[in-house]
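Hi P.,

Sorry for the delay on this. The queue was packed all week, but I finally got your sequence through. Input first:
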Amino acid sequence: MEISKEQIKQIEEFVKSKVNSLDWTHTKAVRNLGLKIAKQEKADKEIIEVTCLLHNVGRHKGREKYKERGADMARKYLEKNNFDQRLIEEVIYCLNADFQIEPKDFKTIEAKIFKDADSIDKISMFGILFFGINNELLVNGDYDKAIEKLMEKTKKKLDRLATKTGKEMGKEKYLEFKKYLAKL
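Then the structure:
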């Protein structure tokens, strides 16, 4: 199974047509992190790249059940465009595992890597900004409450990382965030 650069570009265009610019920026970061982790963990880079690109495609119709909707959209897109059936099943497994089971129970390294990449980006400075913009901090202007909520969410994501590389990268992002907050 080999995916061409043209096929990747087509997936990118499909995703860009479905998500807003914040989600697209997050998607590109998740892909880059996923590919770095995949290299270290010796995983299938094609499965990682396609999964990371398609992971938020269902958000264009709102946040409710967007992961389920996105997995369905991803399957339809990949089948319609004649991607290898094994690739389709692996990508869909990763996307479904993200909302159906705990990372510790994922059956493939690719699912673990995808989840780690998504979580690490959410721990990054951009991810925290992304969370704040998307959720308007849900704290009615209370700075201390916002920081407390962000730290809880960030620590939870850090604790759920599944790969050795992901844990190292996540810890680095978490410490960077804590150092930034200490300066405020």
